Amino acid sequence: MARRVTAAHHRNDQETPVISEYRQSDAEREPDGSGEDHAQDRARAARELGDALRELVQAAAGTEVDAATLRKTADQARDLVGPLTEASRTRHVPPTLDEAKPGRRMYNPASGPGNPIAPPMRVRVADGVATGTCTLGLAYEGPHSYTHGGISAMLVDQILGHAHAAQGRPGMTVSLSLRYRRPVPLETPLRLTAWVPEDSITDRRTGPKATITTEDEPDRLLVEASGIFVIPTAEQAERIFGDNPPPRWSEK
Ligand SMILES: CCCCCCCC(=O)SCCNC(=O)CCNC(=O)[C@H](O)C(C)(C)COP(=O)(O)OP(=O)(O)OC[C@H]1O[C@@H](n2cnc3c(N)ncnc32)[C@H](O)[C@@H]1OP(=O)(O)O
């Protein structure tokens, strides 16, 4: 019998105490501090759309309806595209929502609440330790009822990146290694933890480590990972990103 999956499984909307990425920025506040200006409202709307599309994606990955219903829904989904593309950006232009708030990545595929393919993982950083929480639905399935290994790798890459960034400046992954010890269950609250060993830090490079466990059994390791993150030089950033490299990497 088909399993019914509800949206509640996939919305990671539990409140977490320290999430620096999506707090309202000065740039989004009204001069009088009321904070209900256009950019803030648009950010909230982007999150609402992300949530709604996540619900749709999860329903699509779990549905057992007949072909006629699938086709009708496909037509309806196509109709949704037009209005969104009336104003859109190219790959070389950052989202205006991110520009309104430095450090925000609204459409990050691992943690961006506006991106329907993101679980999204909620990230907190405290004392150099990055902690990510999320619950993955059927859209992330690899082996039956467990998470696809590539999804674990994406989430680990992101959380390692936060641990690296906590040392000073964000970097880029140059190496990523995972040991899949046990399968990562779907529809189960997960915890990712990442930190940077002192002896792995140089001027431009760190070698952070990470684990994935369930929230309920934080001592039972499902995945162990390590990475190497490098802060690109200004020249490398220019080569990669062109005339307008991200400010964090443009310092000569
Ligand atoms: C908070 C936000 C979190 C975000 C997390 C998500 C991060 C990502 O997904 S990034 C996307 C994936 N990564 C990429 O696309 C990067 C592609 N790689 C590159 O463009 C280049 O490798 C680049 C520019 C980063 C570095 O240039 P490259 O010429 O390779 O390195 P180079 O400048 O010579 O070396 C830098 C340091 O790293 C070391 N290093 C480079 N590669 C490796 C490696 N594979 N293993 C070990 N050390 C390495 C070098 O030895 C050197 O160390 P040191 O400074 O101590 O001598």
Fold and architecture overview:
The protein has 252 residues and is α+β, with helices and mostly antiparallel strands. The chain folds into two domains: 92 residues, no CATH class; 132 residues, Thiol Ester Dehydrase, Chain A (Roll). 28% of the residues lie in helices and 17% in strands. It has six helices and seven strands. Strands 1, 2, 3, 4, 5, 6 and 7 form a seven-stranded antiparallel beta sheet that branches. A hairpin with a 2-residue loop joins strand 1 and strand 2. The N terminus is likely disordered. Keywords: Apoptosis, Cell membrane, Cell projection, Cytoplasm, Fatty acid metabolism, Hydrolase, Lipid metabolism, Membrane, Transit peptide. Its EC number is 3.1.2.2. InterPro entries: HotDog_dom_sf, THEM4/THEM5_acyl-CoA_thioest, Thioestr_dom. It holds the Pfam family 4HBT. Belongs to the THEM4/THEM5 thioesterase family.
Secondary structure elements and their pairing?
Layout: H1 38-62, H2 67-79, H3 81-84, H4 96-99, E1 122-126, E2 129-134, H5 149-165, E3 172-180, E4 190-195, E5 205-206, E6 209-214, E7 223-230, H6 234-241
Antiparallel strand pairs: 1-2, 2-4, 3-7, 4-6, 5-7, 6-7
The chain binds octanoyl-coenzyme A.
List key phrases describing it.
disordered N terminus, Thiol Ester Dehydrase, Chain A, 252 residues, single chain, 7 strands, 7-stranded antiparallel sheet, binds octanoyl-coenzyme A, 28% helix, Acyl-coenzyme A thioesterase THEM4, alpha+beta, 6 helices
